[in-house]
Amino acid sequence: MKRLTGIVARVVLWSTVTSLSVSVARAATGSQAVPGIVDIDSRQRLLEIRLSDAVESGRLGTAQSDEIKRLLDGISLSEAQYLLRDRRLKPWECLKLNLDLDHVSKTLESKLGDRQLASMDIAPRVFDITVRLAEAARNGRLTRQELADLRQKLQSIAALDLMSRSDGAFSYIDALTVSLALDGLSSDLERLLDERQLPTIDLDKSLSELDQKIAAGVESGKLSNDVAESLRADLKKFAGSKQELQGSLAGQKALSLAIDLEQFEDILDQKLSGKSAPDLDIQTLTSQLDSDIAKALVDGRLSPPEALRLQSELNCIVAHKAELAAGKPELSQEDKQALGLELEVLAVRLQRTVHGPRLAWPGIDSFQAGLDQRIASAVQAKRLTRDEASTLLAQADVLAAKEKELRAQQATSQQMISLTTGLEVLAAKLYRQMQDRPFAAPDIDARQKELDRRLSAALDQGKISSSSAFKIKSELEAVNDLKKSYLSAYAPAGSGIRAASKDTAPDKKAHTEMGSRESSSKTVVAATLTNRQKLIVGTLLERAAAHLSRSMNGAPESVSALEQRQKTISDRLTEGFALGRLDEPQWVSLKAELDQIASQAANYRQSQDGLTAAQALSLSDRLDTLGNKLEQQLLDSFVTVGELDLKRRQLSLSIGEALACGRLTIPNADSLQKDLEAITQAEILARASSGSMSFGEALKIDFELTRLNNRLARQARQQPLALADVDMRLSAIENQIAGGLASGRLSLEETKRLKYQLDRIGQINAKYRSSGGGSSYAETLTLTQDLDRLGHTVLQQMRDPRATLPDINQRQAQLIARIKESVSAGKLSAGDAQELRENLDRIEQSEASFRVSDEGLNFWEAVTLVGDLDGLSARIDRLTHKAAVLPDLDGRRAQLQQRLTRELAAGKISPHQALRLRKEIKRIALMEVAFRNSPSGLSPQQAMTLSSELDKLGAGIKQPEQSGKMRH
Q: How far apart are the C-alpha atoms of 510 and 496, rounded to whole Å?
């Protein structure tokens, strides 16, 4: 049912894509709007998604990605400057931003290399191309034919995607094939796009009108002569800039000049009206931005971590304002402009964030309603006691009352973030207190011993370096220390997981209570780990095992730059605090340690010698220690749905990377992907069932994902696997098809159909090679998979005995016998017989020359021989004037079917025997169809052979079942 739902959802998606494309094509003809007026924030966000996909798929390097990001940041800065002046985007400003975004889009497409990894989530890429098609059609940048062709390609890719998913098993190769097709479509779209049509900009008219406006101001006394002269001097500069416009950039420069003239006119209007430029109210802008963050958080358009990050940046701007205002009666105009620009840049970032893909945060109202429903479902399923539910509901009521109070007084973003943190903490309590469904916990002791043996053997046999072994040993010792801390925290009676301490998070008490409920009895003879603790320890052991497997296989460790690792830890801290997984003391302590590392790194870099290798290693070790400490605390708290989604995505990417690099076989990759889908389905079932998912169940899924990642690390080889040469495979399958035709195991129609599929793969191969740099490993992988499927199809059809034809040599012998029989019967003259023999000799000579020229018969040689033999057979038929009456095969089959029905009803034959006879009748019918579809048609000899087969079947019906009676 779930598979069917997924297919239906994709059908709806593709239908939406088609209908959107059609509606846009119709709207493009009647639109009179200024070209380029589209949602700038949406375009920026879509470009960021394309950039992210390009980096993840290996099509773009880090340096190139940073270059594109700088261009996008520059556009955001321009947008913020425009908004700061007028609080809205004017048509020319919007058009200028769209032109800049066009340039970024073309630059991005030109830098993309061959895809290395597949995109398992196809829908966002389809949506991106759909929006780009819609925008191009609306602005007339594609002809009707180009739009129709691109839309047809998109629908073809849709059909390929649906067909790949139809059996419920969407393999990595399927995803790679669809991803490569979308890459080609994206490149075709970017290549076909015409330059955006700029409307005519009459700069002379604008300059003249502005000059007249200045003169009218002087005449009316609204402008003094000095002010007018200053304004005319600025106009002369604009006129001089206009004279310099030339070349291919004239349109862009003219547009920039038009924007400058608009801004000049605004200044002139202010002077004519006697009003000065509106003073920037930084406090109002700050309050508005803070309110927008709070509202987006309440509505579910921002997740709590996103809101906390934006609110932290806003606090930095407020702190900057306080520094600038220190010791001054008020801010200068320059300071206000600088602060206003910072606020507008942050506002633009907010808009781009709310246009992005949503995290698992539905908004405050929906979250509260869902929390109440989860509590009720957990009580109904007896996974939560009524007393526990009453306590949780009472706390939820307190938060609901606080929310009403905050909304009534227009709460700040900080207050709303605090409220959402309270809701997340309450959800975490439910998460922990809910009883787990039964599951098997891992055997921690056996796993520890196994890893210790593997590590010792690897070090002893030289399969791992001493430094790597030391790191892994340290990880295992840390896990063992955690296990001992769990065991030592038990009270003498064994009731509880661990004692509460000052650092314990607010929801750790629930963990303790849950541990006592998991105990099999109130009195424990020996301290043991609970299932949840076993999963935590087991997950950390599996991570160490994956590290060991990667080190033994020689796979390079993915090490990020120090600054990137600092940012990652900072983001994890922010997310943990916003979701209530870290209390304030924990967050403050970890944040202080991270700030200390960042400060020390900055001091090292600013020193005379810069950052040395020893200092870099020291910083790296400290970041590793801090990161491990943070992850352990987060894992001991609870596992969020977002984290599980991220781990699944990373694991899927890792599978694809290992396959694309040739370190993983296709069967192993498909097996891993299938297991990953099974884990995903298990999580969906756990979340959809009564009471949602508990902490222990989330730990179980996290453990399974970690164990699957360890399996991937073991199976990924050090050396890339060698792929077969595509050209050789194409040639081998072509010869295989030719051999099937020559041997009679393939009919002429079957060979033509198979050759068409082979030629299609050959054309794709040529396209990949012509893209520059030759075919990538990923592209070669998809071609190899297609060739494997086609080769399997050829073998299957050649093994099918239903329509086996005589091979070339047999047909030649049959033709010689027919000529002799016809001469003996007087149906063929000696001259005609001699001519037929000469033609047959010519065919035999051609076959001999074909077979010695290369390695056997190729496709076209086999087709030529079969065609010549078919023509010669038809000529013999004509010369012998055979008008023989063919047996009524259809009537004979119908009679047999009727007899079968009667005998079966009378109990003279068994159902099994009847089924076997019907299959034989169907086989003969298929042979007749194959004969009739051949170029020479159904010959009398073939018809008699089929009639004889039917006679044999008729005789078989007369043999009754030995038992004499059938049981129904």
A: 10
Chain centre distance of CA 590: 34
Q: Are the C-beta atoms of residues 105 and 196 closer than 8 Å to each other?
A: no
What value does the mean pLDDT take over residues 9-26? 38
Contact 846, 868 (CB under 8 A): yes
Closest by CA to 711, choosing from 533, 473, 548, 478, is 548
CA pair distance 886, 864, nearest whole angstrom:
29
Q: In which residue are the tokens 């006691």 written?
A: 385
Distance CA 709, CA 548 (A): 12
Strand, coil or helix: 224: coil
DSSP secondary structure, 686-733, as one string = HHHSTT---HHHHHHHHHHHHHHHHHHHHHS-SSPPPPPPHHHHHHHH
Give the position of tokens 């006879």.
917
- Tell me, letter by letter, the H, E, C secondary structure of 936-953: CCCCHHHHHHHHHHHHHH
Name the residue among 705, 725, 713 with its Cα closest to residue 664: 713
Helices within 300-385 (DSSP H only): 304-325, 333-354, 364-380
How many C-beta neighbours within 10 Å does residue 714 have? 14
**pLDDT score at 712:** 86
Q: Any idea what DSSP says for residue 270? A: H
Q: What is the pLDDT of residues 231-278, one digit of tens each?
A: 788 777 777 777 666 544 456 667 777 777 777 777 777 777 766 555
pLDDT interval class at 855 (50, 70, 90): low
Output the 3-class SS for 884-922.
CCCCCHHHHHHHHHHHHHHHHHCCCCCHHHHHHHHHHHH
Tokens 């509901």 sit on residue: 393
Q: Please tell me whether the overall predicted TM-score, pTM, comes out greater than 0.85 for this model.
A: no
- Work out the angle between the directed axes of helices 940-957 and 889-905 (0-180°, nearest 10): 10
* Residue pair 802/923 in contact by the 8 Å Cβ criterion: yes
State which amino acid sits at residue 693.
M
Cα gap 390→387, rounded to integer Å: 5
Task: Please compute the mean of the pLDDT values over residues 878-905 and round it to a whole number.
Answer: 71
How far out from the chain centre does Cα 352 lie? Answer: 21
**280 touches 340 (CB < 8 A):** yes
| Cβ contact 406:419 at 8 Å | yes
